[in-house]
Every structure is written in C-alpha cells, then in structure tokens.
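Risk register update: the risk of archive-format incompatibility is retired. Evidence:
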Amino acid sequence: MTAPRLRVVPETVDTQNLGALVWYTIQLAATATRDELRDAVRTAGLPESLLPKPIPVSDALRRAVKDLGTIPDEKNDRDEIVRLLIREAPTVDKDHLTYRLVRETGEAGRKNLAYRELASIDLDKRTGSLVVTHLALELTPGEDAVLDKLGAQYRFDREHYDSEMVRHIARGALKGTDPITVRPSGGIYFIGQAHLSRVEQVRTFLRQFTVGTRLYSVPVLNEADNRTMVSDHVEEQVKVESVRVVEDLKKLLQAERRSEVQVQGALRSLRGLAEMTERYEDLLQTRIDGARAVLGAAQTQARALLDRLVRGDSQG
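Archived output:
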C-alpha cells in the first residue's frame, strides 16, 4: 500500500470536531409492521433497501411459540404437577409445519412422568392458515386458553417484526459510516464528522418507536488525545478483521468445495479495510502505521493462501 495523499481540509469543513461517539438502545417492545418500518425509514430519509423482506409464515409460528414463553405449571386433584408443552412435530411435508400441545403429568421433581398429546397445530406454509385439531376429547379451560393465545400470537407475529429488526435496520444504516468500535464489548462507536448526517437520520428513525428506543451521540473534539484514541481503535479493528479474513481463507483452503464468490468476498474485505484505513488517515491527517503493518501481513498471508488454492486446483 502506498503512502496516503493527505488532503488539505477546506475552510468550510468543521475542524473543531473529529466526529462523535455513538450508541443506541432499543426496547424489546419496539415491534412494527412492514408498513410502519417503511414509514419510519422514509421519514428519516434512509434508503428503502434497508427494509426487510415479508415475514415467512413458518418463522412467524416459531416466533409465536417462543413468544408464548413458559406456561405456568398447575396441580391436579391428585397433587401431581401438570405442565403444558408445545413441541414441533416431525413431518416430511415441506408445505406444512406442525406443533403438538402436550400435557406432561408427574410427581414433584419430574418423577414418573406421563405424556398426552392434546392438540395438533398445523400451519399451511402456502396459505399461512393455522388449523388447530383437538386430539383429546376434553381440554381444560386453561388448555383451550393456551391454544387461543398461541393463535393470537401467531397472527401478531405474522404481521409484526420484533425489536431485533429495528436494531438490524439501524445497524445497516450505520454500516457505511466506517464505524469504529471503541470498547471491547462493543455497542459504542466512533463515527467521523463526514457521516454525522447519517447518524441524525438513524436518530430520527429510532425516535419513531417506543420510549427508550433512541440514539445518543457525544461530540469528539479534534484534540491530540482524541486523535490517538481513534487511531488506536482503527488499528485494533483492522487487526481483528484482518485475522478473521485470513482465517476464512484458511477454511476455504481446507474445504472440499469452495466458490470463487467466497474467495473474492474475502479479498474485498481486505481491500475494504485498506480503504477504510486511508479514509481515517485523511480524517486524522496522519499515518496509522500499526493498521498498515497488520494489513501488509494479512495481504502476504492471503497471497500465500491463494497460491496454495491455485496449486491445489491445478493439481486436482
């Protein structure tokens, strides 16, 4: 990699701040339909390419079972523990997904357990329809209530994305800002001054959801200590990502089947790290020699691995 051509900063650029420390919190209650997500993305001025695909109905049912959570145990008139379980049933029909509502009965400490299937919950993946069939003659009001609650939860989860999708969109929107992780556990990023308009877009996006779902940012002054902080974290991130790329290439070398797309993807990741390093060198107006050394070593390893791949393919 050649030495960067450090730019001359125009007078119109804010030179007081390097950028900002950015983090966000997303409440579990931040659910939304696809239309609501689209409206939030448009209001914030974010690209609609960030929107998710429609929810597969099988995913909605699996999520509904998970969202239902643990059903509280009860006792019968023989002082036995009665527990209701919802278990996926094996099927060879790719167009259907089936669960069973099962009654587990036994003594305290889960001794002498007996099981009885109470109902079948069958999802037609082609139509999204959910059919409940009773397998026992009589169900208790509590067992009927569990089936009703599961049906309602499925209808909700079929239309609503959970809070993780809100997080996914926020993360995707910030991905193109060269975010640098500034703490080992993650969650707080440095984002350069040139990308703070995107930060404001993500802030607007998150504000449209539940209270407590929002983005925070703190300006980072253009001072020597802060430039060193950013430089050190760029170096650390380049090191971590370079090691990951080299490890991925090693796995490709060992794999019986590998595609050119996978190899080229790994090489693009290395080029992307080199370009990101140069952009940060422009921002900081200094060379980040540690990152350059790490990239140089990674590129040497990558070339050696690719040579082995080529030799192996030619011998095969």
